[in-house]
Design brief:
The complex is a heterodimer of chains A (about 250) and B (about 240). With about 250 residues, chain A is an all-alpha fold. Chain A contains ten helices and no strands. Chain A has one domain: MetI-like fold, CATH 1.10.3720.10. In chain B, about 40% of the residues lie in helices and about 25% in strands. Chain B contains nine helices and ten strands. In chain B, helix 3 crosses helix 4 and helix 3 runs parallel beside helix 5. The two termini of chain B are about 35 Å apart. At the A-B interface, helix 6 and helix 7 of A face helix 2, helix 3 and helix 5 of B. Bound molecules: adenosine-5'-triphosphate and magnesium ion.
Chain lengths: ~250, ~240
Amino acid sequence: MNYNWDWGIFFKSTGIGSEIYLDWFVTGFGWTLAVALAAWIVALALGAVLGVLRTVPNRWASGIATTYVEIFRNVPLLVQLFLWYFLVPDLLPEPLELWFKQDLNPATSAYLSVVVCLGLFTAARVCEQVRTGIQALPKGQAAAARAMGFTLPQIYRHVLLPQAFRIIIPPLTSEFLNIFKNSAVASLIGLMELLAQTKQTAEFSANLFEAFTLATLIYFVLNMGLMLLMRGVEKKVAVPGLMSVGGK
Amino acid sequence: MISIQNVNKWYGDFQVLTGCSTEVDKGEVVVVCGPSGSGKSTLIKCVNALEPFQKGDIVVAGTSIADKATDLPKLRSRVGMVFQHFELFPHLSITENLTIAQTKVLGRGKDEAIDKGLKLLDRVGLKAHAHKHPGQLSGGQQQRVAIARALAMDPVVMLFDEPTSALDPEMVNEVLDVMVELAQEGMTMMCVTHEMGFARKVADRVIFMDRGQIVEDCAKDEFFGDIHARSERAQQFLAKILQH
Ligand SMILES: Nc1ncnc2c1ncn2[C@@H]1O[C@H](COP(=O)(O)OP(=O)(O)OP(=O)(O)O)[C@@H](O)[C@H]1O
Ligand SMILES: [Mg+2]
């Protein structure tokens, strides 16, 4: 292969305004962050609620949560994204539909679709982690809280969830990393996040390999950073004297 | 204080409790014993409605559990319970363990709750450990904290479900000492335990259960005094545990 590597490409002008290629990567990185963080908040909040519903002593509640998980886990992410972006707006009431299709700028409507899509998809996975965490706790914990007069919501809020979340930090970390990787699907509905900017750079400059090398590097460093961040969180909330299981 | 009236409970087809009736007066200490699987835990869990039952009624300090209108969390907040495995909340400090139900359930102010919690912690001899977490204490210490945690709610009665059977032998006495003191101060107590020394020392009455039924329910002196007048099952059971 006869390829002329040119790492200086990132500082060259794109020919559009005064932008250099590096600016595109910065913008793309910004969108990737914005998508992943917003979707993560949705996933964490909804996933916690669903995880609780799966464990409460009520058949309807757990049935609803189980159905949700089955649907959102088993339909491919890309299919879900196309549904949210192309189909769901058509099903909205007319004023909302017009707002989404005409008033919003295309980047914003793509952004909203992908945040909802990734958030709901990942919520199904978070739900399962939360359920596993809650079920891993000794049965006596809930019984002790109930015996002191806690109501069911108080039991979850003060006793079960704080312990369950500590247990599931490692699997949640991997969901958190996944949401960043999965955010690349946004490029398929025209959102100029990192992958889309990389492709665009490759096309404009013909420096395909440099562009994708930089993108790979950015994803890699980002992942490492997030992993360290979550380790830090894990350390910060660690319980002195370990989490004792079964009291002893 | 506690009136158990013909309580029957089933798990599916299996009847765990059959026609259980007894009374526990204010200030009385009742020890419940019996072979494994006889329904002791189930019975005392019915007393604070941790376990539902299908027939009969239990009235605690004037409140009927079978009555659909009864606010069960409120009733439970007035009944202290101590478990075999302590069940302190491992993610909370000892002080938080002692105060959380006071503030969240009883609505007490934080300072008042801490004050009360620390006083009780002092009483069980663990004041120096207030800032620690349960995982940093020994089993005996954890169980003493669990007793203090229950007392912090100003319970009208205390229930104990084998509070010493998960402990290493050398820690049993520190927990029993706290319980004896409590009994001597006039606390109404219902204790599932096989510690017959404890029963001899402070119990007013002993209940013996077998296969979901209350087989013996008599004054302590009667129970231990004339063993040969007891039912055959009770005699066998006593022979077994008194060997230890
Ligand atoms: N959730 C449950 N579902 C079905 N059966 C149960 C359940 N809990 C307890 N049992 C059964 O009910 C019976 C009484 O149990 P219980 O725990 O009250 O006995 P126990 O006298 O406390 O025994 P131990 O000394 O072993 O603690 C046992 O045969 C037990 O197997
Ligand atoms: Mg038991």
